[in-house]
Structures are given as C-alpha cells and as structure tokens.
Amino acid sequence: MKSINIINLISIMIITGCMSIQVQVNEPEMTLTESITMEQSNNPFLKRVEFYDNYPRFDLIEPQHYAEAFTVGMREHLEEIELIANQEATPTIDNTLIAMERSGRLLDRVARVFYAMSSTNTNDEIDAIEVQIAPELAKHQDEISLNENLFNRIQRLYNEREALNLNAETLRLLEETYDGFIRSGAGLGEADKSRLREINQELASLQTQFDQNVLDERNRQTIFINDVSELAGLTQGQIERAAQDAESMGHPGEYAIPLLNTSSQPYLSVLENRALRQRIMNASLSRGLDGDFANAEIIVGIVRLRSERAQLLGYPNHASYVLSNQTAQNEHAVIDRLRGLSASASRNALAEAAQLQSVIDNEGGNFDLESWDWPFYSQQLRQQLYSFDESDLMPYLEMNNVLENGVFFAANLAFGISFSERQDLPIYQEDIRVFDVTDADGTQLGLFVFDPYARSNKRGGAWMNSYASQSKLLGTSPIVANHQNITKPSGDEATLLTFDEVTTMFHEFGHALHGLFSNVFYPSLSGTAVPRDFVEYPSQVNELWSVWPEVLANYAVHYQTGEPIPRDLLNRVIESEQFNQGYATSEYLGASVIDMELHRLAYDDIPTAEGLMDFEASVLDDYGLNLSMVPPRYRFPYFSHIMGGYSAGYYSYIWSEVLDADTAAYFYEEPSAARDRGQALRDGVLSRGNSQNVMELYRNFRGRDAEVRFLLERRGLN
Ligand SMILES: [Zn+2]
Fold first, then answer.
1. Nearest to 496 by CA among 611, 390, 378
2. Contact 324/182 with Cβ under 8 angstroms?
3. Could you tell me the distance, in angstroms and rounded to a whole number, from the CA of residue 539 to the centre of ligand 1?
4. Alpha carbon distance 636, 655 (integer Å)
5. Which of 76, 101, 398, 508 is labelled catalytic?
6. Residue 401: closest CA among 247, 208, 559, 240
7. How many CA atoms lie within 13 A of 601 on its CB side?
8. How confident is the model over 254-269, as pLDDT tens digits?
9. Pairing of strands 255-257, 223-225
10. What percent of the residues of the chain are helix, what percent strand, and what percent coil, each to the nearest 5?
C-alpha cells in the first residue's frame, strides 16, 4: 500500500526498466540519548561526522553500524513521538505537526543509506539485517500511526485548520498528515484497530512468502541445454556466460538460460531454434502455477485481506482505497482510460502480428505466429525496415560523453544548472562518481551520485534514490543518486551504450532533477514524495532531451574519431522507436488490467485459488487483450509489483505518460523557448514536490489540463 508521509515511509517504486526507490523518514533534533550514545560509539550514524550535510561516511560504515543505528534510531523516534503525544500543552502546529516533521532524524539517515546499499552494494550481513529489520520497521510505523493521543492532537488541529490562518504549505502538510493517519486506521475503534494490526502482519508474512516463491520458482524453471548447437543466434560471449551459469548452478558441461521476471524473455529475440524458444516461453508462463512454489493460494489470501482492510477503512474495495489519494482519484477514471487504450492497442498488435506472419511465410516457415516467435520475427522485421544494427550505433554513445555532454548539457540548456566533479568525498565502490550541482546564479543545489555499472551484488534495473531530501525546516540540501546496470567493459575499453541505455540515463536523471530542484519547507513534502501515479512524469519527460537535436549533436559523436553520428543513421534509430508499439502497449495494458480488476472485486467475488487463472483470462477477454501471442507482461503468479507496493498501481506508468507526452509536445512547439519553458517547468512543478496538489501544479504550468491525444499519437493509438 502507498504509505503515509507522516512517519517512516519506505516505499519502493518499480517501473518498466526503471526503479525509483524512495525512502523517506522524518528527522529529529539531537536528543539526550543520542548525545550520550555518541560519546561511546564509533558508529558514523551516531556520531555527526558528515562532510556535507548528510553525505554518508562510506569510508567508515560497517554493516553492524546499521543494526545499531536502526535500534537507536527507532527508540529515539518513539521517545520523541511519546513526548509530542503526551505533552500537557494544547496542540499547536509547532508543538505537534512540526515537531513530528523534525522527529526520527537518525532513523531517516540510516534507513536511506541502508536501503541504498542493500540495493546497490549488498552482502550477506546486509541481507540478514534486511530480513530482520523489515517487520521491526512495520511495527514501528504502526506504533506511531495508531497512537491515539498523537492522532487526537493532529485531528484537533485539522478540525480547527480554517481558523489557524496557515500558509498554503503548512495547510497541505496538515491535510496530508491527517489523511495519512486516517488511511492507516487511526480513526478506528479498538476492535477494528486490533484486527487491522493482525491483517497488516498477515499481509507482511504472505507477501514475503510470495516473493520467496517467485525467486525459487524462477530458479527452478531455469532452462538447461546439453547441446550447444541449440543456442544458435547467441553471441560467443552469451554462450560462455550460459556455460558459466550452468556450472555455478551445479550443471557443469551444460548451458543455462535463467528466466527474468517478465513473461517474455530477452533471448527469444535471437534464438533461432524454435523448439527451444517454445520451451523458454512455456517455462516462463507456467511459473508459480503448480508445485512447491505455487502462488495462487497466497495471492487469493492477500487479495482477501486487502479487501477486508479496505472495508474496515470505509472503502468498497482495495482499488478505491489505493486510488483515493492518487491523481487518478478513483478506479473508474483508470478503468475508462485502460479500456480506451486497450481497444486500439490490441488492434495495432493484430496488425503487427499479420506483418510478422508474412515474414514467417516468406521464409517458408509453415507455422502460425506464437508468443515465442514474436520477439524473434519482430527483430528480423526491424532490421529489414530500418537496416541498422545496434552495433552501428554504439560507437557514438560512449557513457561518460552521454552523461556530461548529453544529460548534463540538456539540464544546462533547459534549466541553467551546471556540474563539477568532486574528488574529496568517500565512495562505496571505485566506479562511483560524485558531482556538485550548481544553479545558474552560482549557488549550490546539492550533490549527484552516479553509479552506472552492473555488479553481482547490485539488483537489476535502473533507479534513483535520495541520501538526503531538501527541506528548509531542517536546512538540508538534496543528495540524489542514479543507478543503472550497464555492463562494465574489460580493462581500459570505453563503455559504449545501446540507445535504450541512453534513454534510461535521461529518464533516471529526470527523477534526480525532481529531487535536486525541490524547494519546499517540510521534508515530508519534498522532491519525489508525490503520488505514485505522478512520480514517473518528471523522469519520462526528461527523456525528450535524449533526441532533442541540439543535445544529440552535442553528445552523439564517435568515441575515437570525434565525428558526429550520421544523420540518416540517427533518423532510422528514432523512427524505429515507434516500431512494435502495439505489442509493447498491449502487454503492458494486459498486466495493468488484471491488476486493477482483481483489486476492485467485492470480497465475495474474489475467485478461489482454483479459479484465479480463469479470472485472469476472463479479464483479458473482456478488454480484448486475450491475444495468445501477446501474453501480459506479468501473470498473477509472478506479478511481484502488485503483491508488493504497486497493488492497483501498475497503471501508473501510462497515466504519467499522458502528462509527459503533453509536455514534450509543448517543448517541441517552440524549440527556441526551451530555456524559458524549462524554467517554468522547474518553478511550477519540479521544485514544488508535494507542497500543493500536483495536478493543480501541472495545470498552472501548462495553462490547461494535459491532453491525451499526444500520448495516442506517440504510441500510434489514434
Ligand atoms: Zn522512473
């Protein structure tokens, strides 16, 4: 569930090819306990020894410091909360609302660094602490959000808010804080609160089981191959990798193809052996359906508990509970949007299928296109239509050049900011680069940390996180980081990127800008602390600069000769971005609709475990998305997003994309105004965090609401 801003909120945002992790906890003044502990400990979280605001002491932190700092941090936070909740004085904004904003500062610091490291540079000790700390943090959060005295004080302020003559941001904080308490059950009677605690605990345990099953089942379904000739289509490097993987999985002499999370699998686009492709796709689609790691019972259990909780909190179903504080507001708005898009997306997918069938027929293949054929033949068609290979392009896309002369250059062009590298700050791994970010008037905005390479102790995907968020109340500046999983070349070789990796770099930097530009008073309303269905807007819109002519000309130069990329090659690359959109949109929408429809069922209509997959099929049928050759990107038994924090939320990406496409059109309408319009975007939206309703911010920036037609054009859905 989307958690609340008031206390310690740890929400993980997962998206297509990108993850943005947001760890947000509020911050305390130094207390007596902390000052005593400081003198006795070398723990860098307990001693205030930062170089630059909250920049972590990576040179000093040991894993055991996290566990200790979590324990002290939670204890301190609770002590602070008790003082606020039990004081004699009449509630005021200062002694209650702002005191809460200041509380939990140590816990905030340790949680941000810990979750950053558990994602990007983990080890067995960190993994063990993570397992141990998760339920403790959940319990900690319940102790605060269900604290009756604390809630009574907030409620009294909330009821008197009209008379308090608050400024707009403080009023927003009060409303958001009150709403957060209500959404966590603070307004319930004792019996209901007690049932709510049980539900939350049962959910935490079922969700952990689900995640472990997904991982175990993915490993169980790994494809092993004896005969290397079956691997035709893979590069020599990929074949060697498959042999190493098999060896490390206890199958020496064989070749392993491990499955990724999604329904479709990357090697399907290159493997020439049709039977092997079928074997891979079938293994992928059947994950979690039966055997020791079957997930249907768990899914149904989770959905029932969520439904019961929604009813306790006064909502007819889980989706309406989740959506009530999103920009979409209610499930009907989402359903209408998804239904409208599905009809045209599936029509386009069917047209693409017909094209692929003719490629098969022309090759003399005597079979019908199936899901395991689609990626392979669409790759062939793409090469026929656009006649370029990724390898033609990569010499023009050297990573550091893309960063400094592309991503940074665009940020200067649109927003006037500049960057200079810091060599004096400690880093946790040798490839990390840290930059000062300076505003047009020379003042320092914050720090940017760049961690590009894949490592065995780093999770997949790409994401942004904040080590510190901006707040005038606390006097803190933002420290933000971007992560990717780019393969590190050997020795001194240059890091040459695919165009997808370039786009991802711009995307993640859009999240970074949302953090860096934040200019608000309260930490709970800072930067990326916006509704989940809005958070991908700043990142997606920043992708527009990757193909902005002036920016492209600046970064897409040959890494050896310095020659600019040939114009026709570039045009073919940009044109090919429109290719296969029917498939891409349909598989995304398939996953979105099964998520939304499952979570808006009334309790009595929730299917049994035996009926779950029939329910999935009937939803896809209903939306016209039941295309056997285009499976949904995830099926229920391995749809981790929606059994975790993205329930009734997978629609968010395309929802944010409406704003993104609308804004991109605005920039393209008058390219010479890029700097002015960039400034307006920054002042009106990117700097404002959640200090005002974000859709109002958008309307003020754009002069009207976003229009969906630009998204439809972009995806060929009009
Ligand atoms: Zn993102």
1. 390
2. no
3. 5
4. 21
5. 508
6. 559
7. 22
8. 999 988 888 999 899 9
9. antiparallel
10. 55, 10, 35
508 is catalytic: yes
**Do the Cβ atoms of 606 and 303 come closer than 8 Å?**
yes
Residue type, 55: Y
Q: Give distance in angstroms: CA of 17 to centre of ligand 1.
A: 8
Q: Which helix (H) or strand (E) holds 468?
A: strand 463-468
Rounded to an integer, what distance in angstroms lies between the CA atom of residue 659 and that of residue 300? 34
Computed from CA positions of residues 28, 29, 32, 33, in that sequence, does the dihedral angle turn out positive or negative? positive
pTM metric for this prediction: 0.89
Strands 18-24 vs 9-15: parallel, antiparallel or unpaired: antiparallel
DSSP code for 488: P
Q: How far does the centroid of ligand 1 lie from the alpha carbon of residue 5, in Å?
A: 20
Q: How far apart are CA 142 and CA 681, in angstroms?
A: 37
**Residue 419: strand, helix, or coil:** strand
Q: What is the whole-number distance in angstroms between the Cα of residue 507 and the centre of ligand 1?
A: 6
- Contact between 417 and 439 (Cβ < 8 Å): yes
Class at the top of the CATH hierarchy for domain 9-187? mainly alpha
Q: Sorting pLDDT into bands at 50, 70 and 90, what band is 136?
A: confident
Q: How confident is the model at residue 388 (pLDDT cuts 50, 70, 90)?
A: confident
- What ranges do the domains of the chain cover? 9-187, 221-285
Cα of 465 vs centre of ligand 1, distance in Å, is: 11
Q: Give me the chain's average pLDDT, please.
A: 90
Separation of CA 661 from chain center: 19
Task: At 582, list the tokens.
Answer: 């029917």
Residues with CB under 5 A from ligand 1 (ion): 15, 18, 20, 539
CA of 460 to the centre of ligand 1 (A): 14
Decide: 666 and 504 in contact? Cβ < 8 Å.
Answer: no
User: What average pLDDT does this structure show over 507-530?
Assistant: 97
Burial of 252 (0-12, 13-18, 19+ CB in 10 A): exposed
- pLDDT single digits (tens) 50-68: 556 689 999 999 999 999 9
**For residue 37, is pLDDT > 50?**
no
pLDDT tens for residues 667-676? 999 999 999 9
Per-residue pLDDT of 2-15, as tens digits, reads 233 323 333 333 22
- Per DSSP, 460 falls in state S
| Residue 23 CA, ligand 1 centroid: distance in Å | 15
Two tokens at 40?
Answer: 């006795």
Cα(402) to centroid(ligand 1), Å: 18
pLDDT, residue 52, reads 64
Max distance between CA atoms of the chain, in angstroms, equals 85
Q: What's residue 51's pLDDT?
A: 57
* Closest to 655 in 3D by CA, of 230, 341, 290: 341
DSSP 548: -
Return d(Cα 482, Cα 12) in angstroms, integer: 15
Per-residue pLDDT at 395 = 94
CA of 689 to the centre of ligand 1 (A): 16
